[in-house]
Design brief:
Elements: H1 2-10, E1 12-16, E2 30-34, H2 58-66, E3 71-75, H3 90-97, E4 102-108, E5 128-129, E6 132-133, H4 140-150, E7 156-161, H5 169-174, E8 177-180, H6 188-196, H7 229-232, E9 250-256, E10 260-262, E11 267-275, E12 281-290, E13 303-312, E14 317-324, E15 331-332, E16 338-340, E17 343-350, E18 359-367, E19 371-372
Length: 374
């Protein structure tokens, strides 16, 4: 049960063009399930695991749930980075998939291609070099197969398994929906099918930034924080840290932020969150703090200071409260000390980063002499 809940809560919906998801099981009579991870039990377990009593892939879950009510056409099509022996051509895969009402491509990579144990991509082939990534793009062969599937004109849903970021250059523009499924563990298949067919409303958020291009990544040799992480990157991104879609919508109002706080003290901030959509769902309420930019010190553009995952029935409202401590209202100075000092601080509570999500902004003024936290 814990593995199942974990898998469900980790799902991040990145794109949902024209509300193609959730799929309607009553209307879909035939589904094409394509891709190297559609029935790859090894992939979803990542690289550190025990032996589960049951390990359910997306194909297994689809068959278990809808095997008697819809035709399920499964075609792996390609491997992670290369063609499969005796596999049909892309044209043949697309021809068969065109007979379905919707195409679900389950791709991405496996832990064999990333991390310290990821030695499957030796030599840089397909974007991987002995655990290192040489690009943030999906393996080219998978994108090429999806291009062929796109030509069918049928809705194309991408489910991506990976433990690191993918840039989704072509996919973000051409797939109708994108679900980031990570390595969801032994219950990943059930969780993915839950989200695809609306049995579970996704609310996961990106724990990292999806950059538009490899060129946006700072040089590894550069030890400054310039353009590193959401806190210091000021360019355009594809999917920001903290981002994630839902099948419902949420509104924020009644932000309460004390006008003033004395150094060394905490403050309490709150807002009212309302499910303004037509489905019950979770909202991940995020709290960010923004200090004035200081040319003499490294000041984050914004910084996450707390979050709460709140379940709201459609039409329901809840008051969500956070406490900002002196540590969370402080900055690290050039001497390495963490200091809460006088000045205006903006406070944002919303479903993602400031200016990139629905939310409310306020301000508090810190008064008094500098207070050293650490």
């Amino acid at each position: 049960a814990h593995a199942y809940e974990m898998a469900q809560k980790s799902m991040v919906l990145l794109k949902n063009y024209n509300d193609v998801l959730p799929l309607d099981s009553k209307k879909i009579k035939r589904i094409a399930l394509v891709g190297p991870n559609a029935d790859n039990a090894h992939a979803q377990l990542a690289n550190y695991f025990g032996v589960p009593s049951e390990n359910v892939t997306p194909l297994m879950s689809l068959k278990k749930r809808f095997g008697n009510s819809m035709q399920i056409d499964y075609i792996a099509g390609v491997g992670i980075v290369d063609t499969l022996k005796n596999a049909p051509s892309f044209a043949e895969v697309a021809k068969q998939a065109a007979q379905a009402d919707v195409i679900v491509f389950v791709g991405g990579i496996t832990a064999d291609y990333e991390g310290e144990a990821g030695d499957a991509g030796a030599g840089g082939y397909g974007g991987f070099a002995s655990g290192d990534r040489t690009t943030t793009a999906l393996p080219p062969i998978q994108t090429e197969l999806m291009k062929a599937l796109k030509q069918t004109g049928k809705p194309l849903v991408l489910v991506n398994m990976s433990g690191s970021v993918m840039s989704f250059d072509w996919e973000s523009k051409n797939a109708d929906a994108i679900l980031q499924a990570w390595y969801g563990g032994q219950a990943a298949g059930d969780a993915i099918v839950d989200v695809l067919f609306g049995a579970y409303n996704p609310a996961g958020r990106m724990p990292l930034t999806t950059y538009i291009s490899d060129r946006d990544l700072p040089p590894f040799e550069d030890y400054s924080m310039n353009n590193r992480t959401y806190r210091y990157f000021d360019g355009a991104v594809r999917y920001p840290f903290g981002y994630g879609l839902s099948y419902t919508t949420f509104g924020y109002e009644n932000l309460a932020v004390p006008a003033k706080v004395t150094t060394g003290n905490s403050i309490e901030v709150s807002t009212t969150v309302t499910n303004t959509g037509k489905r019950d769902g979770d909202e991940v309420v995020q709290l960010y703090v923004m200090h004035p930019q200081n040319s003499n010190e490294r000041t984050p553009i914004c910084a996450l200071k707390g979050f709460q995952r709140v379940h709201l029935r459609k039409g329901e409202s809840k008051k969500v409260t956070f406490t900002l401590t002196p540590e969370e209202l402080s900055l690290v100075n050039n001497k390495g000390n963490q200091v809460m000092q006088a000045g205006d601080v903006k406070v944002y509570i919303g479903g993602g980063q400031p200016h990139k999500s629905e939310g409310v902004m306020g301000q508090t003024t810190i008064e008094g002499t500098p207070y050293q936290v650490f």
